[in-house]
Structures are given as C-alpha cells and as structure tokens.
Amino acid sequence: DDIQLNEAVYCSEKGTGMRNRSMAYFMQSENLLEGDVESLLDFYFKMCSIDITAEDLAQYGMILANGGMDPLTGEQLVENWILRIVKTLMVTCGLYDGSGEFAIKVGIPSKSGVGGGIVSSVEGRMGIGVFSPALDAKGNSVGSYRVLEYLSLELGLHYFSGIC
Q1: Is 131 helix (H, G, I), strand (E, B) or coil?
Q2: Which DSSP string do the residues of 58-93 spell out, in sequence order?
Q3: pTM attached to this predicted model
Q4: Which of 19, 56, 68, 24 has its CA nearest to residue 43?
Q5: Long-range contact set of residues 132-140: C-beta below 8 Å, sequence gap at least 24
Q6: Other C-beta atoms within 10 Å of 155: how many?
Q7: Which of 56, 76, 81, 164 is the most exposed place for a label (fewest CB within 10 A)?
C-alpha cells in the first residue's frame, strides 16, 4: 500500500528516455508493439519510477524463484510462460549493456533500476533485493553489483556453476 511514484525520477526518465522512445517506435514499425507509443512509454517511465525498498525487491525475486507463487500467501501470481520470458530477459538484458559481464561474473537472473536497486532471483532458493544509489557508466548500481557478486561466489549461486 505504501508503494508510490517518485515524481522526480519519472520526470527525469520521461525527459531523457530517447533510446527507449526510439526502440518503441522501431518495435511499432515492426508490428511488435501495439497501441499509442507515447502512452505506452509514459506507463513504462512510471513503472521505472516506483519507490520501493530492498525488502520489496527481495520479495519480488522470491516470487520469481518460487515458480510465480508468493510463498507468504500461497497465491499464484505469475504464470509459467511469463516467468520463462521474464527470467530470460533478466539474464540477457536485465543490467542493460552490462548484462553479459554480469551473467559471467554473478550468474543470477537480475534486473537493475535507475534508482540503484537490483532484484535477483535464485531459482528454487531465494529472492535478493539490494540497493546502493551510485551508478556505473552502464546505469547499474556499483554497490549492489558488488554485493551480488560476493553473494554469488560465497553461496555458490551462479546459475551455471554446476556446468562443466
């Protein structure tokens, strides 16, 4: 109930989202996006500007790690086919241009946000939410990245660690 829009972040995202805008119009030209592009972008920018806590992020990651079911309530919140898409996107592009390096170093499906938070999902085990506001050149939280790298190494969380 206490999740709210951060108006300052929203205005910043909306004012500087030229790459998102160009991708959205390209997707529409390829018939991959339906509807009014500016309205869709406005909704997207608002979703990127929600104030939440690291605990909220961890709970979202936990739901993804638990097959879309909230283990606190037992409610199925996300269908399997959507989970597959979301977690695949988290691995392949969840940390913007740093996604490939993150997949190699950390190996946990994750999504970073412009505010410095990262949500991560360790399949069948846990959700992790971390926050640190300083961003690197690729738009990812420096501190959050390092925490996840440490946890992955120390707890053996890398998705591909068992593959020879």
Answers
A1: strand
A2: HHHHHHHHTTTB-TTT--B-S-HHHHHHHHHHHHHH
A3: 0.87
A4: 24
A5: 136/98, 138/95, 138/96, 138/97, 138/98, 139/96, 139/97, 139/98, 139/112, 139/114, 140/95, 140/96, 140/98, 140/102, 140/112
A6: 12
A7: 164
Tokens of 73: 């309530």
Q: Please identify which residue in the block is written with the tokens 């979202």.
A: 60
Q: In the 8-state DSSP scheme, what is residue 117?
A: E
Tell the residue number behind the tokens 């390829």, with chain if given: 30
Each residue's pLDDT, cut to its tens digit, for the chain (164 residues) gives 678 999 998 999 899 999 999 999 999 999 999 999 999 999 999 998 999 999 999 999 999 999 999 999 999 999 999 999 999 999 999 999 999 999 999 999 999 998 899 999 999 999 999 999 999 999 999 999 999 999 999 999 998 876 54
Please tell me the total number of residues recorded for the chain in this structure. Answer: 164
Selection from 4, 98, 15 nearest residue 51 by Cα: 4
Tokens representing 107 are 């190996």
